[in-house]
Amino acid sequence: MTARALRALHVPGKPLVLPNAWDVDTARLVEQAGFPVVATSSVAVAAALGYPDGEAAPVDEMFAAAARIARAVSVPVTVDAESGYGLAAPELAERLVDAGAAGLNFEDTDHVAGGVRPVEAQAARVADLRKAAGDALVINARVDVFLGAEDENAVLDDAIARAKAYLAAGADCVYPILVRSPEVLGEFVRAVAPGAVNVSALPGGPGIAALAELGVARISLGAGLWRHTQAHIRSVLGDLADGTLPY
Protein backbone atom coordinates (compact mmCIF):
# COMPACT_ATOMS: atom_id res chain seq x y z
CA MET A 1 0.00 0.00 0.00
CA THR A 2 1.15 3.51 -0.79
CA ALA A 3 0.92 6.77 1.10
CA ARG A 4 -2.27 7.45 -0.87
CA ALA A 5 -3.87 4.32 0.56
CA LEU A 6 -2.63 5.19 4.05
CA ARG A 7 -4.06 8.70 3.70
CA ALA A 8 -7.44 7.22 2.77
CA LEU A 9 -7.58 5.32 6.07
CA HIS A 10 -7.85 8.62 8.00
CA VAL A 11 -11.62 8.90 8.30
CA PRO A 12 -13.14 11.10 11.01
CA GLY A 13 -15.44 8.97 13.14
CA LYS A 14 -13.94 5.71 11.84
CA PRO A 15 -10.43 5.99 13.24
CA LEU A 16 -7.35 4.11 12.17
CA VAL A 17 -6.01 2.37 15.29
CA LEU A 18 -2.24 2.13 15.61
CA PRO A 19 -0.60 -0.18 18.20
CA ASN A 20 2.91 1.28 17.90
CA ALA A 21 5.73 -1.23 17.39
CA TRP A 22 9.45 -0.94 18.10
CA ASP A 23 11.18 -3.76 16.20
CA VAL A 24 10.57 -6.32 13.48
CA ASP A 25 9.07 -8.86 15.87
CA THR A 26 6.44 -6.50 17.29
CA ALA A 27 5.70 -5.04 13.84
CA ARG A 28 4.97 -8.52 12.51
CA LEU A 29 2.66 -9.19 15.46
CA VAL A 30 0.74 -5.99 14.69
CA GLU A 31 0.34 -7.06 11.06
CA GLN A 32 -0.62 -10.62 12.00
CA ALA A 33 -3.33 -9.27 14.30
CA GLY A 34 -4.96 -7.70 11.27
CA PHE A 35 -4.05 -4.05 11.66
CA PRO A 36 -3.70 -2.34 8.26
CA VAL A 37 -0.78 -0.11 9.26
CA VAL A 38 2.30 -0.39 11.45
CA ALA A 39 3.39 2.72 13.34
CA THR A 40 6.62 3.06 15.27
CA SER A 41 7.14 4.64 18.68
CA SER A 42 10.29 6.76 18.95
CA VAL A 43 10.69 6.21 22.70
CA ALA A 44 10.32 2.44 22.31
CA VAL A 45 12.61 2.20 19.27
CA ALA A 46 15.24 4.33 20.98
CA ALA A 47 15.04 2.23 24.15
CA ALA A 48 15.40 -0.99 22.15
CA LEU A 49 18.55 0.50 20.64
CA GLY A 50 19.88 1.55 24.05
CA TYR A 51 19.12 5.29 24.04
CA PRO A 52 16.68 7.70 25.71
CA ASP A 53 13.91 9.42 23.76
CA GLY A 54 14.06 12.99 22.50
CA GLU A 55 16.37 12.56 19.49
CA ALA A 56 19.14 11.15 21.70
CA ALA A 57 19.53 8.07 19.48
CA PRO A 58 21.75 8.38 16.41
CA VAL A 59 19.63 9.21 13.39
CA ASP A 60 21.24 6.48 11.30
CA GLU A 61 20.24 3.85 13.85
CA MET A 62 16.67 5.13 14.03
CA PHE A 63 16.27 5.04 10.25
CA ALA A 64 17.92 1.61 10.05
CA ALA A 65 15.37 0.31 12.57
CA ALA A 66 12.54 1.82 10.53
CA ALA A 67 13.88 0.23 7.36
CA ARG A 68 14.09 -3.21 8.98
CA ILE A 69 10.46 -2.90 10.08
CA ALA A 70 9.26 -1.72 6.67
CA ARG A 71 11.03 -4.61 4.92
CA ALA A 72 9.48 -7.14 7.30
CA VAL A 73 5.79 -6.28 6.82
CA SER A 74 3.51 -5.90 3.83
CA VAL A 75 1.37 -3.08 5.29
CA PRO A 76 2.31 0.62 5.26
CA VAL A 77 4.67 1.85 7.95
CA THR A 78 4.43 5.30 9.48
CA VAL A 79 7.55 6.36 11.35
CA ASP A 80 7.76 8.47 14.49
CA ALA A 81 10.47 10.80 13.19
CA GLU A 82 10.34 13.04 16.28
CA SER A 83 11.22 16.59 15.20
CA GLY A 84 13.18 15.56 12.13
CA TYR A 85 16.61 15.01 13.75
CA GLY A 86 17.88 18.35 12.52
CA LEU A 87 17.68 17.22 8.90
CA ALA A 88 16.62 19.59 6.13
CA ALA A 89 13.25 18.70 4.63
CA PRO A 90 14.61 17.17 1.39
CA GLU A 91 16.97 14.84 3.26
CA LEU A 92 14.35 13.89 5.84
CA ALA A 93 11.83 13.05 3.12
CA GLU A 94 14.39 11.14 1.07
CA ARG A 95 15.59 9.07 4.01
CA LEU A 96 12.06 8.17 5.06
CA VAL A 97 11.08 7.11 1.55
CA ASP A 98 14.32 5.15 1.17
CA ALA A 99 13.54 3.37 4.45
CA GLY A 100 10.19 2.29 3.02
CA ALA A 101 8.02 4.59 5.11
CA ALA A 102 4.62 5.77 3.91
CA GLY A 103 4.21 8.41 6.60
CA LEU A 104 5.72 10.12 9.61
CA ASN A 105 5.02 11.92 12.85
CA PHE A 106 6.58 15.40 12.84
CA GLU A 107 6.77 17.25 16.18
CA ASP A 108 6.77 20.97 16.87
CA THR A 109 8.99 20.44 19.93
CA ASP A 110 12.52 21.79 19.52
CA HIS A 111 14.80 19.18 21.08
CA VAL A 112 17.86 21.42 20.79
CA ALA A 113 16.61 24.77 22.07
CA GLY A 114 13.87 23.29 24.22
CA GLY A 115 10.19 24.15 24.26
CA VAL A 116 7.81 24.33 21.34
CA ARG A 117 8.70 26.12 18.13
CA PRO A 118 6.80 29.28 17.14
CA VAL A 119 3.78 28.32 15.07
CA GLU A 120 5.00 30.22 12.00
CA ALA A 121 8.36 28.46 12.07
CA GLN A 122 6.82 25.02 12.43
CA ALA A 123 4.24 25.67 9.72
CA ALA A 124 7.10 26.61 7.39
CA ARG A 125 8.87 23.35 8.27
CA VAL A 126 5.70 21.39 7.47
CA ALA A 127 5.37 23.23 4.16
CA ASP A 128 9.00 22.49 3.28
CA LEU A 129 8.49 18.82 4.11
CA ARG A 130 5.33 18.61 2.02
CA LYS A 131 7.13 20.22 -0.92
CA ALA A 132 10.03 17.78 -0.56
CA ALA A 133 7.89 14.68 -0.07
CA GLY A 134 5.13 15.44 -2.56
CA ASP A 135 2.41 12.83 -2.05
CA ALA A 136 4.91 10.13 -1.03
CA LEU A 137 4.48 10.64 2.73
CA VAL A 138 1.50 11.11 5.03
CA ILE A 139 2.48 13.93 7.39
CA ASN A 140 1.05 13.65 10.91
CA ALA A 141 1.91 17.02 12.46
CA ARG A 142 2.19 16.80 16.22
CA VAL A 143 0.87 19.65 18.37
CA ASP A 144 2.81 19.50 21.63
CA VAL A 145 1.32 22.33 23.70
CA PHE A 146 -0.74 19.94 25.83
CA LEU A 147 2.42 18.19 27.07
CA GLY A 148 2.76 19.12 30.74
CA ALA A 149 -0.11 21.62 30.56
CA GLU A 150 -1.82 22.00 33.93
CA ASP A 151 -4.88 23.59 32.33
CA GLU A 152 -5.76 22.18 28.92
CA ASN A 153 -8.31 24.92 28.29
CA ALA A 154 -5.56 27.51 28.70
CA VAL A 155 -3.61 26.12 25.73
CA LEU A 156 -6.56 25.07 23.59
CA ASP A 157 -6.62 28.21 21.43
CA ASP A 158 -2.88 27.86 20.76
CA ALA A 159 -3.36 24.19 19.88
CA ILE A 160 -6.16 24.97 17.44
CA ALA A 161 -4.17 27.76 15.80
CA ARG A 162 -1.20 25.44 15.39
CA ALA A 163 -3.32 22.64 13.96
CA LYS A 164 -4.97 24.93 11.41
CA ALA A 165 -1.58 26.35 10.38
CA TYR A 166 -0.05 22.89 9.96
CA LEU A 167 -3.01 21.63 7.94
CA ALA A 168 -2.86 24.71 5.73
CA ALA A 169 0.86 24.06 5.24
CA GLY A 170 0.20 20.57 3.90
CA ALA A 171 -0.13 18.22 6.88
CA ASP A 172 -2.55 15.34 6.35
CA CYS A 173 -3.37 14.94 10.02
CA VAL A 174 -2.73 16.81 13.29
CA TYR A 175 -1.88 15.18 16.59
CA PRO A 176 -2.63 17.02 19.84
CA ILE A 177 -0.61 14.55 21.85
CA LEU A 178 -1.67 13.70 25.40
CA VAL A 179 -4.80 15.82 25.45
CA ARG A 180 -6.83 14.13 28.19
CA SER A 181 -10.14 15.93 28.52
CA PRO A 182 -12.88 14.61 26.21
CA GLU A 183 -14.48 18.07 26.25
CA VAL A 184 -11.26 19.79 25.17
CA LEU A 185 -10.60 17.12 22.55
CA GLY A 186 -14.11 17.44 21.17
CA GLU A 187 -13.74 21.21 20.86
CA PHE A 188 -10.37 20.77 19.15
CA VAL A 189 -11.78 18.27 16.63
CA ARG A 190 -14.72 20.52 15.81
CA ALA A 191 -12.47 23.56 15.41
CA VAL A 192 -10.11 21.93 12.90
CA ALA A 193 -12.76 20.02 10.92
CA PRO A 194 -12.67 18.65 8.32
CA GLY A 195 -8.99 18.12 9.09
CA ALA A 196 -8.04 14.66 10.37
CA VAL A 197 -7.12 14.42 14.05
CA ASN A 198 -4.88 11.82 15.71
CA VAL A 199 -5.17 11.27 19.46
CA SER A 200 -3.42 9.21 22.11
CA ALA A 201 -5.27 6.30 23.72
CA LEU A 202 -4.54 6.91 27.40
CA PRO A 203 -5.12 4.78 30.52
CA GLY A 204 -8.30 5.93 32.19
CA GLY A 205 -9.26 8.03 29.17
CA PRO A 206 -12.00 7.55 26.58
CA GLY A 207 -12.02 4.17 24.86
CA ILE A 208 -11.85 3.58 21.12
CA ALA A 209 -15.62 3.83 20.63
CA ALA A 210 -15.82 7.07 22.61
CA LEU A 211 -12.92 8.59 20.69
CA ALA A 212 -14.60 7.63 17.42
CA GLU A 213 -17.76 9.42 18.57
CA LEU A 214 -15.66 12.54 19.14
CA GLY A 215 -14.76 12.43 15.45
CA VAL A 216 -11.09 11.51 15.54
CA ALA A 217 -9.54 9.89 12.48
CA ARG A 218 -6.57 8.13 14.05
CA ILE A 219 -5.77 6.64 17.46
CA SER A 220 -2.20 5.96 18.57
CA LEU A 221 -1.07 3.88 21.51
CA GLY A 222 2.30 5.67 21.38
CA ALA A 223 4.51 4.11 24.02
CA GLY A 224 1.51 2.39 25.61
CA LEU A 225 1.99 -1.08 24.13
CA TRP A 226 5.71 -0.98 24.90
CA ARG A 227 5.10 0.10 28.52
CA HIS A 228 2.41 -2.57 28.96
CA THR A 229 4.83 -5.19 27.64
CA GLN A 230 7.57 -3.93 29.95
CA ALA A 231 5.25 -4.19 32.94
CA HIS A 232 4.38 -7.79 32.06
CA ILE A 233 8.05 -8.76 31.65
CA ARG A 234 8.92 -7.13 34.99
CA SER A 235 6.15 -9.12 36.68
CA VAL A 236 7.32 -12.40 35.14
CA LEU A 237 10.93 -11.67 36.08
CA GLY A 238 9.87 -10.86 39.62
CA ASP A 239 8.11 -14.22 39.89
CA LEU A 240 11.14 -15.97 38.46
CA ALA A 241 13.47 -14.21 40.90
CA ASP A 242 11.22 -15.51 43.71
CA GLY A 243 11.60 -19.02 42.39
CA THR A 244 8.32 -19.33 40.47
CA LEU A 245 8.43 -20.46 36.86
CA PRO A 246 6.34 -18.20 34.61
CA TYR A 247 5.07 -21.13 32.53
Automatic annotation (TrEMBL):
<dbReference type="Pfam" id="PF13714">
    <property type="entry name" value="PEP_mutase"/>
</dbReference>
<protein>
    <submittedName>
        <fullName>Isocitrate lyase/phosphoenolpyruvate mutase family protein</fullName>
    </submittedName>
</protein>
<dbReference type="InterPro" id="IPR039556">
    <property type="entry name" value="ICL/PEPM"/>
</dbReference>
<dbReference type="InterPro" id="IPR015813">
    <property type="entry name" value="Pyrv/PenolPyrv_kinase-like_dom"/>
</dbReference>
<keyword id="KW-0456">Lyase</keyword>
<dbReference type="GO" id="GO:0016829">
    <property type="term" value="F:lyase activity"/>
</dbReference>
<dbReference type="InterPro" id="IPR040442">
    <property type="entry name" value="Pyrv_kinase-like_dom_sf"/>
</dbReference>
